[in-house]
């Protein structure tokens, strides 16, 4: 009997952005009361994963972990054996405008809240809205993180941001504050394969959110669901092509999920403006299930931590110096942009 080679790894993660965090970035009133749908989406996702015998990574917002109303669903994630990552405390996609001292406090607060709610100390980080800076990487290194997963190598970030701004009621100052939401055009030139950041405080593994090799267009679940609103067959064909290109180029995918991939406009009416929210949640779950079935045909699906630990053993990983446009701004300018508007139409 021929010996079959082990499948390459593919990690899956879910950014547990809550209803209030979407409303906050969108500039909608009422976010500061922290409306939540975690009691609805977490059991739905856990059942979905249990049926497929999958363990993935959940990046949790510290503010959610700190609220008693969310304690039960968040603790259920850890109890089910999933990895718990840090998604910042306040979920502000202008984290790259924070000072290094502010970043240290933001991450520490999130760690404390997440550990209190789950009993697990995070060793992986993803910036809200893919926000990242040299200062954030230095803080992550000092705090002993195993990996970062905040880069999103695509050229389409500005288009996504433009759509978001069209649907929002934001002032010019608020738009400037959110000016790096979903990344700049230059993000498309970043590597798809993992590498190490050289920070001055040590090296840190970076696992990018995978986009389609060669073309650098998104393949995460929310994008496939958006395409499936036009044609489910073509959307899944698109995903099959992306997986084939991953195999051809030797790219081990890191697939991103979001709560809205499991919800529809009836579950979260204030978020009906998001693409694909008109699709019934059952139909969305079917598409995401088919995506993971296709992924499992060619790859072994693991958590980000397991993926990172396997990558950490590789000596030939390339290394890079951090290069983020915001790092070139004077501290006074970054502080001015950050402070011009805080959280949309309801200010803190």
The largest sheet is: 5 strands, parallel
Helix count? 13
What is the H/E order?
A: EHHEHHEHEHEHHEEHHEHEHEH
**How much helix, percentage-wise, in residues?**
40-55%
CATH domain class name? Alpha Beta
What is the 3D form?
globular
CATH homologous superfamily classification: Glycoside hydrolase/deacetylase
Strand content: 5-15%
- Total strands: the figure is 10
Structurally, the number of domains stands at 1
**SS class:** alpha/beta
Identify the CATH architecture: Alpha-Beta Barrel
- What is the end-to-end distance? 66 Å
- The Rg value, from CA coordinates, equals 19 Å
CATH-defined fold name? TIM Barrel
- Average of the residue pLDDT scores: 92
* Low-pLDDT windows of residues: 341-348
Characterization of the model:
The protein contains 13 helices and ten strands. Helix 5 (100-118) packs across helix 6 and helix 9 (221-228) crosses helix 11 (281-298). It has a single domain, classed as Glycoside hydrolase/deacetylase (TIM Barrel), CATH 3.20.20.370. Helix content is 41%, strand content 10%. The radius of gyration is 19 Å and the shape is globular. The protein has helices at residues 19-26, 38-51, 62-66, 71-79, 100-118, 134-142, 157-167, 172-177, 221-228, 232-249, 281-298, 304-312, 331-340; strands at residues 9-15, 57-60, 83-86, 124-125, 147-148, 195-198, 203-206, 254-257, 300-302, 319-320.
């Amino acid at each position: 009997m021929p010996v079959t080679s082990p499948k390459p790894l593919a990690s899956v993660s879910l950014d547990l952005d809550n209803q209030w965090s979407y409303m906050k970035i969108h500039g909608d009133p009422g976010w500061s009361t922290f409306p939540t749908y975690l009691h609805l989406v977490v059991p739905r996702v856990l059942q979905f994963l249990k049926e497929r015998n999958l363990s993935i990574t959940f990046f949790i917002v510290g503010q959610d972990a700190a609220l008693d109303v969310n304690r039960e669903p968040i603790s259920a994630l850890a109890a089910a054996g999933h990895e718990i990552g840090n998604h910042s405390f306040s979920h502000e996609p202008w984290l790259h405008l924070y000072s290094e001292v502010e970043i240290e406090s933001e991450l520490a607060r999130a760690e404390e809240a997440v550990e209190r709610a789950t009993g697990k100390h995070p060793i992986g980080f993803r910036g809200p809205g893919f926000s990242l800076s040299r200062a954030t990487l230095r803080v992550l290194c000092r705090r002993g993180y195993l990996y970062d997963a905040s880069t999103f190598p695509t050229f389409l970030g500005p288009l996504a941001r433009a759509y978001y701004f069209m649907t929002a009621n934001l002032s010019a100052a608020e738009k400037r504050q959110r000016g790096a939401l979903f990344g700049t055009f230059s993000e498309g030139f970043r590597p798809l394969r993992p590498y190490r950041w050289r920070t001055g405080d040590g090296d840190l593994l970076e696992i990018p959110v995978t986009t389609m090799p060669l073309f650098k267009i998104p393949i995460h679940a929310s994008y496939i669901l958006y395409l499936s609103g036009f044609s489910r067959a073509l959307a899944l064909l698109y995903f099959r092509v992306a997986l084939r290109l991953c195999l051809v180029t030797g790219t081990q995918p890191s697939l991103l999920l979001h709560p809205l991939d499991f919800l529809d406009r009836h579950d979260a009416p204030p978020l009906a403006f998001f693409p694909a929210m008109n699709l019934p949640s059952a139909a969305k779950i079917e598409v995401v299930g088919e995506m993971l079935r296709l992924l499992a045909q060619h790859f072994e699906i693991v958590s980000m931590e397991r993926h990172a630990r396997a990558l950490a053993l590789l000596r030939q990983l390339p290394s890079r110096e951090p290069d983020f446009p915001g790092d070139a701004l004077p501290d006074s300018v970054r502080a001015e942009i950050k402070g011009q508007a805080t959280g949309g139409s309801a200010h803190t």
